[in-house]
Structures
1.
Amino acid sequence: MKDLSEFEAICRAVDVPVLANMTEFGRSALFTRQQLADAGWRSSSTRSPR
């Protein structure tokens, strides 16, 4: 998924929690927690600060 509209479509299409990979290993842009929440996301994986 490349943009938030694709994330929103996934959230609407399934009735289960979906994980957003917001680490340097993910393939999408790095969205904020608020952006993901606004798109309907309930869980994300982020990189811990060092």
2.
Amino acid sequence: MDSNVLDSGEDFERLPCDEAAKTMAVRLIKLGKMTLEEIADCAGISLAEVKELAEQKTV
């Protein structure tokens, strides 16, 4: 497992809920083992938000 993906330096417990969900989604996107739909479901955010995050990470 890529430790850089999991060690972003951000403390999950200190982030507001929506930011924590987006941070988790970004980490899952970087892992590349789940579909965007699965990530949206696990992170509790919309598929549109996950797609937006995925586009930002590939630009």
